[in-house]
Amino acid sequence: MDFIPENQKQEEAFELASQLCNVLNEGVQKKLLEQVGVHNFATNSKLINATVGSKGVYVDTNGISKL
Amino acid sequence: MTTTTDKEFKPQLLYKDESRIKEILKQSDDTSEKLNQALDVATNFIGGDLNDEDKENILLGGFDKAMEMIRAKYQFPDADDEFNLKSMGKDAEPVELALRSSKSLYRGFEYDTLNGKVILSGNGKKNIEEGACTYTKNEAQNAAFDLAKRICKNLNEAMSYGFIDSSDQTPIAQGVKLTKYSTETKNYVPNVNFLKHIDPFGGIRSSGY
Above 50 in pLDDT, residue B2? Predict the structure, then answer.
């Protein structure tokens, strides 16, 4: 289901998180970033997330929806 | 017809080591001061007006050049150095000492002799600065540097919105080696120490990484 931001902060966070995911997944794909490192980063971040078996990092819509 | 699809590699500046530049400029200043003191000693010994070219020749030719110049002023050309120097009230020993290694010291940096003084040339300064610059060496480093800048841009933007707080900084920096958190500038910057170890195939050359 598509995420629909409910306020400006969520909108900004979503936009940023999407950009971050793109750039990090691109880095992993091009082997410029270590997948483990990116996953660690994502799990520490409030904007993006990663789970075991997930294909790259993704926008943490659950976290963003609480902003 | 031959066509080429290879993009010409353009090195990108990763960083300029300002403290290294400062250190080398200090060494250059110390050396030029020593050379100027040597020139003062030699000028007093030889006497008369010496132009910039003469002074440069003294530094490059050392004590032998200074002796050659003073011999041209001997009043008793058939007598030996000792007699002539004594008759002129000159002592050669301090000059010999002052001009010891003057050639190698003068050549050590790109100096000019201007208005009677040894100074670092513009080109010399430029080369010192250039020598302290680290550039990318291959396309893989360029790609990684570009990606690192984009990640930093996003991270710094996220920080400015408060989506990343100070407690997040260390794990983020450790997780993404292309970037690091700078305690100096208080933001994310490309991790040039990591970037410069990337080989042309995107691998890491240093065992430290």
Answer: no
